[in-house]
Design a protein that fits this description.
Structural class: alpha/beta
Protein name: DUF1853 family protein
Radius of gyration: 20 Å
InterPro entries: DUF1853
Order of helices and strands: HHHEEEEHHEEHEHEE
Number of strands: 9
Pfam family, one: DUF1853
Organism: Aporhodopirellula rubra
């Protein structure tokens, strides 16, 4: 199996099987690799290249619904209009195994927990600092899902299908409480500021892969001689060059060559030492 095939298969399995980022009322369906025609999956993606993580995730969900569950997809990205004004868009309308009409809103999100900083009252901040967990939940449940209540009244179930990961600072205490709707069973990662990472000692067996969009989903698998893997020195130089032009967090996969498994051993965001930058916040200043 080629690297491209393996990546798509892992990401499809992750899309369906990974823990929900939010409290979910419906029991999720799980899939296994032997249910997937990998060549068909690759062909499904061949004409739609995109670096947007959310779009890639939505396409994987689309594939699962249509080609694995064999659901009847009634509409995808359905725009809702009223009096020549666009009110919003419904991600998916489909008929499930009981022939009931279901409305799904899909999202994949990555938030960094910043106990000493807040954006719009939230300590769970996205790499794009205007995106916070609470802000996304408000839009999802107050605007996106209610669109079908008035405009598609035949809908029987409305679901928020949200996956992702929350990143926490190394050795920092856990949040005293989670925001409403955030699942306690969410996937986690780590956060290091650039100075902390620069202070790390170089270890011969440890290698780093700078993750490029849209491939932020599943855990990476590596061979020891994988060309994507960098030494600590090379990875640090690449991140410093990135920050010189774009002061946005960089997602890193870590691999220990001496480990018994070929799977990544850690996943973390490297952030600029002064992130989030005052100029990036909606209020124009940092909140302590």
């Amino acid at each position: 199996m080629s690297a491209n095939q393996e990546q798509l298969l892992r990401d499809l399995l992750w899309t369906v099987n990974s823990p929900s980022l939010i409290d979910s009322q419906r029991v999720p369906t799980r899939i296994t690799a032997d249910q997937i025609d990998v060549n068909h999956l690759v062909a499904f993606f061949s004409d739609r290249p995109s670096r947007k993580v959310g779009y890639y995730f939505e396409r994987l969900l689309h594939y699962w619904l249509k080609h694995v569950r064999r659901a009847d997809i009634v509409a995808h990205n359905l725009q809702i209009h009223s009096e020549q004004r666009t009110l919003g868009e419904i991600d998916f309308l489909y008929r499930d195994e009981q022939n009931q009409l279901v409305h799904i809103e899909a999202a994949v999100k990555f938030y960094l927990y910043q106990p000493d900083h807040a954006v719009l009252g939230s300590h769970f901040i996205g790499p794009n600092v205007r995106d916070t967990f609470e802000r996304k939940m408000h839009r999802l449940f107050s605007h996106q899902l209610p669109l079908s209540v008035e405009h598609v009244p035949d809908v029987v179930h409305r679901e928020a299908f949200v996956k992702g990961r929350i990143f926490y600072e190394h050795d920092a205490p856990a949040p005293p409480h989670l925001p409403p709707r955030m699942s306690a069973d969410h996937l986690t990662g780590s956060i290091l500021c650039l100075q902390q990472w620069n202070d790390q000692a170089n270890t011969a067996d440890v290698r780093y892969h700078i993750l490029r969009k849209p491939f932020w989903l599943s855990e990476c698998h590596y061979e020891t001689d994988d060309p994507r893997l960098r030494s600590l020195t090379d990875a640090q130089a690449a991140v410093r060059n990135h920050f010189a032009e774009y002061p946005t967090p960089v997602l890193i996969s870590q691999y220990n060559a001496g480990n018994e498994t070929d799977t990544e051993t850690d996943r973390f965001f490297i952030i600029p030492d002064d992130w989030p930058l005052p100029s990036e916040t909606p209020t124009g200043k940092k909140s302590l």
